[in-house]
Every structure is written in structure tokens, then in C-alpha cells.
Amino acid sequence: MQNPQAKLNYFIHKSACVETDKIGSNTRISAFVTIEADVQIGNDVIIHPHVTISSGVTIGDGVEIFPGAYLGKEPKGAGATARKPEFDRIISIGDNCSIGPNSVIYYDVKIGKNTLVGDNASIREKVRIGEFCILSRGVTVNYNTQIGDRTKIMDLTHITGNCEIGNDVFISVLVATTNDRAIGKLEYNEDRIQGPKIEDNVAIGAGANILPGVRIGMGSIVAAAAVVSKDIPAGKMVAGNPARVIKSVNEVD
Prior knowledge:
Blueprint (H helix, E strand, L loop, with lengths): L10 E2 L4 E2 L3 E2 L4 E2 L4 E2 L4 E2 L4 E2 L4 E2 L3 E3 L4 E2 L4 E4 L17 E3 L4 E2 L4 E3 L2 E3 L4 E2 L4 E2 L3 E3 L4 E2 L4 E2 L4 E2 L4 E2 L4 E2 L4 E2 L4 E2 L4 E2 L19 E2 L4 E2 L4 E2 L4 E2 L4 E2 L4 E2 L7 E4 L4 E5 L5
GO molecular function, one term: transferase activity
InterPro entries: Hexapep, Hexapep_transf_CS, Trans_hexapeptide_repeat, Trimer_LpxA-like_sf
Keywords: Repeat, Transferase
């Protein structure tokens, strides 16, 4: 049954707890949704049951948020982490994005328009994601990472903290990126903890491992299961453990 706010041209289920009045037209908020104050919701938004949206979140027009998603999680280390999280209490979700079931988006994240965040994905604080991207099922993106436009990251891939990924990049399933050559044996130091730099138009095959601080040059290809421990020049294909250049990309069949 529609509540009295229906005259404002949006629907809120009677079991939802909604503390904001900044809701666009033709928006539908389903059962058992929790939305705190200071949330802005655009037009034609669909919020499915059991979604939680914390204060400071801005949601663009045409966004769909599927059941169980959590937008605005505060990062806390519980005294166990070497790195102290720093963040602003904001999230921006661009127009026409899709946020999958049970995905978790921490504070201080900006996602460009027409981007798909898959089921059970996790996006940590200070992450910036471009337009027309795909973060598929179970993808994890760690803190302070930049992802360009039209980049696709496939199922169960981990993007480490302090990582840079360019435009039009394809990263296949089960890829691991890392940022600490000491493997946790030294104290956290922002200057030392550096993820890979993956330039525009790179393609990375399934199960590859990209080690800390390496740069993968524009247009390169990393073969499946390769272990990349050194920089890769632009336009080259690498394979093996450790990864070595086997040909130029223009020689690939």
C-alpha cells in the first residue's frame, strides 16, 4: 500500500525507514530499506529490499540497487590493521548505475555513470571508478585506487590498495594484484606500499598475478597465469613465471 508521500510522486514501502526527503520522482523504495538523513536520491531510482544507505550518499537518476547492498560503510580497523583509514563521509553514484546484491561500498567512493557493480563486490574508501565500467561478481577493490572509464574487471579478482588502472582495460577472472613486497613483515608506509600501475588498453588473462609497484605499459597483454614482477613495455605480450616478453601485440594472431 502506498504511503501518504505518494503525492510527491515516489513510493516508500511502509516497512522502510527513510530519514531523507531528498527523493526524486518515480523512485521506488522497497521493504525493509534503511536510508539515513542527508541522502540524495535522483529520479527513476529502484531500491530493492534490505538495502542500507548511510548519510552523505548521493544517488543519480536511473540507478538500481539490489537487495542487501550497503552504501556508506565506515572503514574500521578494530585495532588490528597497520594502516589507519582516512576518509570523507561521502559517496557519489552516477546516473544509470547498477549496484548488485550484497555489495558493500565504503565511504569516500565515487562511481561514474552507467557502471555495473556486481553481486557481492566490495569497494573500499578513497576509490574512484570511471564511467561505463564493470566490476563483476565478487570483485574486491581496496583503498585509494583509481579506475578509468570503460574498464572491465571480471569475477573474483582482487584490486589492491594504492593501485592505478587506466581506461579501456580488461582484467579477467581470478587475477590478483598486490602492493607490499615485504608481505606484511614491515610496518605500513604509504611511500613503500604501492600497487601496480596498469595503463590504458591493457588486457590481463585469467589467474595472473601482478606484483607490487610494476607498470604495465599501454596496450600490453598479460597471458593467463603469468606472474608479473617487472615493468612491461607498451605494446608487448608477456607470459610465464616470471613473466617475460614473448612477442609484440601486433604479432598476436
